[in-house]
Design goal:
By secondary structure, this protein is of the alpha+beta class. The chain is built from 25 helices and 24 strands. The strands form three sheets. Strands 1, 2, 3, 4, 5, 6, 7, 8, 9, 10, 11, 12 and 13 form a 13-stranded mixed sheet that branches. A six-stranded mixed barrel has the order 16-17-22-19-21-20. Strands 15-23-14-24 form a four-stranded antiparallel sheet. It is found in: Cell membrane.
Amino acid sequence: MLKNYVIVAFRAFTRNITFSIIHILGLSIGISAALVIYLLVRYENSFDTFEEDGDRIYRVVLDMKFGDMVGHSPAVPAPAAMAIQNEVSGVEATVPIMQFQGDATAKVMIARGGEQVVFKKQPGIVFTNPLYFDLMPFQWLAGSKSSALSNPFSVVLTETRAAQYFPHTAVSDVIGKELQYNDDLTMVVTGIVKDFDKPSDLTSLEFISYATIAKTHLQDQFMMNVWNDWMAYSKLYVRLSKESRPADVQARMNAVFQKYGAHKDEQNKLDFALQPLNDIHFNLQYAGFGQRTADKKVLMGLLAIAAFLLLLACINFTNLATAQASQRAREIGIRKTSGGSRGQLVIQFLSETFFITLLAMLVSASLTPALLQLFGEFLPPGLHFDLLHEPGVMAFLAVLTLAVSFVAGLYPAIILSGYKPSAVLKNQAFAGMPTRRSGIRKMLTVSQFVIAQFFVIAAFMVGKQIHFAMSQDLGYRKEAILNFELPRDTTHYDRIRNEISNLPEVEKVSTGFLPPAMEGSAFANITYDEGNTGSKAAANDRLRTVQLRFGDPSYLDVYQIKLVAGRNVREGKNIDETLINESYAKALGFLQPVDALGKELTFSGKRKAPIVGVMQDFHEGSFHNPIGPLVYESRTQGGFFHVALRPQPQGTRQWQDAIAKIGKTVNEAYPDADFNYRFFDDTIAQLYVTERNTSVLLNWATGLSVLISCLGLLGLVMYTSAARTKEIGVRKILGASVSHIVSLLSAEFVKLVLIAFVIAAPLAAWAIDKWLQSFAYRTPISWWVFVVCGALLIVVAMITLSVQTIKTARANPVKSLRNE
């Protein structure tokens, strides 16, 4: 019996090869989407799931509230690690992780000839203690886990990094060799660990002993005794004891914080918080600079897209399968007359569906590597597909194939197997069917177009918001500005600036800190002592974490930032002046910007600087966040260069020539440094990379959903045309024109598309409104968007309908009436 099912399924496939290919195309689209999204979701959810006692591991983070401003930081003050270790009960292990600062250049001395090999800008170098290896289950190849990082000036390398520094050297022989970092730190290799191949947000590759910091100048550089300031390089992990409650430990940690550094009032709060290990990869609030996070809402949205595409594919299969009913009616009648039961016919049709679904699955599996490469820029770098070595993926595809076969094939199987032998053999199988069962097919078609219309509107609105963000006046110039950073050696800064300023292609040059907007944040703790100034500030001695920029006076000219009160900072090495933005002036309680002039700000509780000007507010981040308080401080020495280029005449290479000249100047001054530049408008675009990725994925989902929906619509019109063949023949005999018949056949389907639009429009409006709420500044949901998207889908539907309706309308009526 099974053999017979397979033979009949294969014959049905080859007999209707065109429909079979359409079936496979529709199902393979849905299965491919589901497979790629499954691989992505499975990968993202596999992060940090392997650590022993992972439910007791937490990252210590900061929650901040300053007036109406709320912030979060994955970094903590450097001395917190030692204080928590010594003074907080319930903590079993305290693991500080300090990112190596500077260019992170490693030098290795070659034994023969005394030559040095230099490795520039090595990523993944951290300072930590031996307990790090209790958190991460590294396999040790050489050295001792308990003692490798116990002493100062020791370093543990991963296997790959050891092979890079000491090629053709046995692992055991690497122990005891020396590495020099940034010319002034010499370390001895005390351990080698195997490369870590499991997904984790702890991605360090070189581990320098934490005790080294106290023995070097890094003690000051890392601010090891500063409680009221912190930088992004200072992270802290803890493992709680089994009997400890996180809330209790967190309270004890904040008591220590209060003891040494944090100050609270009703308006200003700074607290430690414990972030669970399994939350780090998904919590965007505490995402560190350069850390890749996954948004669970986005993953759920992708799963919904996969489910919708699969549903569309199943509906498409159902409509096309029932459209072929007229070709299978006689076969069904003969099988039933010969003694075949309805149950056997159901199994037969389900087996045919399974055969087609199996082929679609094989097509999808073969296309997946190419799809992963096509969407590589949207996918995490560690994601890969290896079907033969991944039992979980094989099981997923097996279950998916069975589920799709059942969902897509059940309805056609029940309908086709229900035909009465006497009716089909008298050629009356379709009598009355449009009225009895077409309602279900119409409902399925409407469902398809509801999903397609939803995607069309969503994709249009996401693109509209991105255009809104990129086309608004951000409060500064963003075009034709070059940014690059120089090594910390300031010897050649002035000469480089002068040479660049003299280039004919350059309009203006400024040196200092970061550009007005960037990925991540740069904060400073600034106090404003209201004293007896008469301002409306709510509290004295206001401590705020404020966005910080600094540089020379030309900074405002390069970026064309406007002043609403006062003047620019002055040039000079001993000048210590500040500018604040309008938002900071309002936060300090000044009714007018001019009222802030002459007041003093205190930086980190020590240095004071007067306010000499108030800048017009500009966007220091993406449109997700409102403009917050910001201070610009005068400093003459800064390694970040901002170069405004003159307009480039069309058809010339003026900017390329300028970049080449700037690169030559930098390389002459710093032969060992790489000249890495970036245009400022690219930095702005990077702020919306998530939205751009979402837009691209939505465009793909939209295109696929419209394609599948049109295939389903084509199936329904084919079915209806077949059912109404004789009616159309009679109409043509009585003088109906081709255009009349085309409009007669099309009107009903256009009505279905309009019904789908009425259902989809409010759903899309609700979903888009929810998405736009994540933006502090957003585009309106305009009525014309829905009109354009609805009209677009109607046009596509009309083109699809015309393929079959015109063919049907032009058919010879004699052929359709011949068997009457």
